[in-house]
Amino acid sequence: MTVTVGVVDDGSLAFRGVVEVLNGAPDATLVGVFPSLGAVLALEVVPDVLITDRYCADAAQQVRQARQARQFVACPGVLVVSGSADLGPAQVALSAGALGYLGPYASADTLLRAVDTVGSGDCYVTGRYREAIHPPRPVPATRDDATVGARPLSERERDVLTLVAQGLTHKQIASRLSLSKATVDTYVHRLRQKTGMSNKAGLTRVAMGFDAPG
Q1: CATH code at 3-133
Q2: For the chain, what are the domain ranges?
Q3: What is the rounded CA–CA span in Å between residue 119 and residue 187?
Q4: CA nearest 49: which of 121, 110, 147, 156?
Q5: Which residue in 5, 33, 138, 154 has the fewest CB atoms around it within 10 Å?
Q6: pLDDT beneath 70: ranges in the chain
Q7: Considering Cα of 48, then 5, then 181, then 190, what sign does the dihedral take?
C-alpha cells in the first residue's frame, strides 16, 4: 500500500533532502509541500503522514479540533524530522502526540522506514531518543513477574510489546514471531486493555519500563 505524505517545509536545506527522498520512493506519494500545519488540515483528503520539523501541544490541539470539526476518519500521523540533536524537542513532540521522531543524521532508508511505520499507525522513534525520553524503570527479577500496574503480562505479550516499541507493524510482528496477523491484533488489543494505553505511542512508553527481548 502506498503511503501519502505531506511536508510542512521550514525552508531548510535538510527538508529539501526529505522532499527529494520522497519523490524517489516507490511506496510513498508526496501530495505536496505546505507552509503550515493548517494548510495540510484544510485539504479535502489529508495525507497519511505529515512530516514537520517540530510538533508541540498547540499543534496537537489543532489536529484534534480539525478532526472534530470535519469528522475525519483519521488524521495524519506526525513524523518529526529535526535538524537538532537535542533531546528536549523530541520529548515535547512525542508527549504532544507525534508518532515518529528522527534526528539530523537519519539516512534516507531510515526516513522511508519511518514513513511506512507511521503511515501504518505505529510509532517510530530511534533508540537513542526512546531511551533518553523514557528512562527504563527498575526491571522485574524475572520475565514471568513482569506487570503493568496489577495486571501481569505474559511472555508472548511482552514479546509483542517489545516489537511494537521497535516500530514494527502488526504484519511484521506476525512474521517475526511466526503468528497470524489476527493473533497479533488480539495481543495488541489485550495490551491496550492491560496498560490503559489507546495507541501505539502509549504502548511504546510502557515498553520502555521493561528489559524486553530484542
Answers
A1: 3.40.50.2300
A2: 3-133, 143-207
A3: 21
A4: 121
A5: 138
A6: 1, 10-14, 70-75, 127, 130-151, 198, 209-214
A7: negative
C-alpha cell at 180: 497470524
138 residue type, one letter: P
